[in-house]
Every structure is written in C-alpha cells, then in structure tokens.
Amino acid sequence: MTVKSRTFKSLALFLPCILVGCATIDNRGHVVEPVQLEKIKVGVTKKEQVAELLGTPSSVSTFGNNTWFYMSEVTQRRAFFNPVILKSNITRIDFNDQGRVVALDSLSEKDRQVVSHIQRSTPTAGHTFSVVEQIFGNVGRFNGKDPDAERPRR
Known about the structure:
Order of helices and strands: HEHHEEEEH
C-alpha cells in the first residue's frame, strides 16, 4: 500500500468524524408529551392541576392570564452556520374565568406564519433642520454663565 492511498483512506475515515463533531443539537423550552396532554380534560381540569402536571408555562397571554403557552424547539447547529430548526412545538391551553380548561391546541412548524414588516415611515409636522442650520442655530444662544448659579437657594 502506498503512502498516498493510506493518507487518503485515513482522511476518508476521520473526516466524517470531524464534521459530526462540529454539529450540536439543542433542546430548548418545555417539551409536552402526548401522554401528558391526554390527562387534561376540557371542561374538567383546573389551572392548578395543569400546573402540577406540566409545570409552569413558558409564557402567559399578555391580555389576562387565561391562556398558557408551553413552547419547545429542537435546533441543530453546524460549525459557524446558522442554526436549523428541526422541530418546534407550541401547546396552547385556554382557561375560562373559573379556571377550567376550555381549549387545548398543539401548533407545530407547519402552522408557522411569516409576518413581513412594512418599510414606510409616518410623516410628522414641523421643519427639518439641515446640518448647517443645526450647527449655526446654536451660535449666540449660550453666554457661558450658568443660569442656575445666579438664583438664590431656598
């Protein structure tokens, strides 16, 4: 066996190991198992029971605390590339005013919607000063005296 072929074979064996070593998988958030969701009954289960079964929610609705969200995400990152989302899940639980479950949803990556931002700006009334107007507009406004120094203290 020649030196070239040995080098090539050893490189072919170790290169995949090196590349795999650069990949990391991150689990983030609160993973809700389907077995846990089966224990929650709409109209019967209360907030306290849900908190005992699933733990505290990842987020609570900003408009009252009658909607709880449990969010999780699995991402993979390779070396210096941006992370790729492998799996994401959001479980939403709605409660009524008596604290009982009224709705239970699970949203995944396929339910995600892209929101685009609008690039326009709101016009305002008034005058826009140029750089020169801003620089020379203050000339003569300051006389070097501290106006608070002349006032007697009470």
